[in-house]
Amino acid sequence: MIATAEMLVDSQRVDAFATRLTGILNSGALALGLSIGHRTGLFDALEALPPTTSEQIADHAGLNERYVREWLGAMVTGGVVEYDPADTSYRLPPEHAALLTRRSSPNNLAVAAQFLPVIASVEDRIVECFREGGGVGYDHFDRFHEVMAEESRQTVVAALFDHILPLAAELPGRLRDGIEVADIGCGMGRALIALASEYPNSRFTGFDLSSEAIEDATDRARLLGLRNVRFETLDLSKFDRPAAFDLVTAFDVIHDQAKPARVLENVRAALRPDGVFLMQDIRTSSHLENNVEHALGPFLYTISYNHCMTVSLARDGAGLGTCWGRELAEQMLHEARFPDVAVFQLEHDMMNDFYVARI
Q1: Maximum Cα–Cα distance for the chain, whole Å?
Q2: Confidence (pLDDT) at 6
Q3: CA–CA distance from 287 to each of 293, 329, 342, 353 (Å)?
Q4: Any residues with CB less than 8 A from the CB of 92 and at least 6 apart, and which?
Q5: Given pLDDT bands bounded at 50, 70 and 90, which one contains residue 350?
Q6: How confident is the model at residue 13, as a pLDDT?
Q7: C-alpha angle with apex 316: 314 to 321, nearest 5 degrees?
Q8: Which has the closest alpha carbon to 266: 289, 238, 231, 224?
């Protein structure tokens, strides 16, 4: 034990925590490398090639060899890529490729790693919020909608038809026959465009606060020749479409809202008598003590105060945060006058809860 003027400090615990902190620094650095490896296509190049040199990897990916070699150094010392000094060759093990390449989607965790540099870009503003309060608005986050759209393709679009829609058994049939659908907080519209492509008899409208995201979604729908989908820039607290829709969806949206209770009330009012609200959100508890063992607890809370919570507070909002949790979500749905709320988990998806709320 180390004695100080104020307390006794367990030196073994100090050493153990120092070791852990070293691991945290290394892991944080590797997370940035995962993002770069994904964005540059290096993981895809490594998967496509036999064990080979940095020059050949750089040539295959169309990148600068010196940067590729230094990145490979980080990946090798971090245990992501294997290295053979005998012929200076690099190899991405297939077990690692299964979680790091575009071909491995929806299991590509390098996609999620991109959120870390996105939130790091606003650190100075977040530090100021710690001192002064307030928040950081969406417009300060470079690439957020782009990264979110890619994540949506993995977590929502990939499971939409086989797993998510059947949670409300009647939905696939009703969509085939033709109904009115709204997707609130649609972002770049990947889920809604997939739905519109699959169900030509139904009509789809996407709403989002970001005019940039709406423009991208509109352009994509036009490029695909879809005539049954449209997108509109809208503050969801002003979502006023009484009895206009048979289905409203919200994928990873409600906890970001400035006025989430009002948004849920607006959704309730927008549904017709036999309407369904299908909501996906992050699987956590509303109580911190229940999240201590969560596999991604530190990641989720960090994303929260650096993005989800702060974008709400930037608009004088509730600031629910990423980990608002199932208990509060169910409570708020009932307070919005949804008498029938069912919560589902998908066997393949450890990150999300799915709520089917009926009126």
Answers
A1: 76
A2: 59
A3: 12, 12, 20, 16
A4: 43, 46, 47, 80, 81, 82, 100
A5: confident
A6: 94
A7: 70
A8: 238
Beta-strand runs (E) in the chain:
2-3, 8-9, 82-84, 89-91, 180-184, 203-208, 229-233, 245-251, 271-282, 340-344, 352-358
Report the alpha-carbon distance of residue 129 to residue 134 in Å, rounded. 6
Which residue shows structure tokens 């709520």?
355
- Is 307 in contact with 128 (CB distance < 8 Å)? no
Q: What is the C-alpha to C-alpha distance for residues 96 and 73, in angstroms, rounded to an integer?
A: 16
Q: Which residues pair with 357 in a beta bridge?
A: 277, 341
Partners of 8 in the beta sheet? 3
For the chain, domains (ranges, CATH) are 2-102 (1.10.10.10), 119-358 (3.40.50.150)
Token digits for 174? 């009703």
Is the peptide bond prior to 260 cis by the omega test (within 30 degrees of 0)? no
Place of tokens 């169309």: 62
In a 13 Å sphere around the CA of 252, the CA atoms on its Cβ side amount to 23
Tell if the pTM clears 0.85, that is, is over it: yes
Q: Do strands 340-344 and 352-358 pair parallel, antiparallel, or not at all (unpaired)?
A: antiparallel
Question: Does the structure show a pLDDT above 80 at 328?
Answer: yes
**C-alpha span between 323 and 297 (Å, rounded):** 9
Distances in whole angstroms, Cα of residue 158 to Cα of each of 32, 220, 348: 25, 18, 11
* Spatial CA neighbour of 260 closest among 307, 213, 311: 311
Alpha-carbon distance of 307 to 236, in angstroms, equals 18
Give the integer Cα–Cα distance in Å for 72 and 54: 8
pLDDT band for position 8 (cuts 50, 70, 90): confident
Partner residues linked to 2 by β-bridges: 9
- Residues linked to residue 276 through DSSP beta bridges, in sequence order: 247, 358
CB atoms within 10 A of CB 35: 20
Rg from Cα positions in the chain: 23
- HSE-CB at 149 with a 13 A cutoff on CA atoms is 19
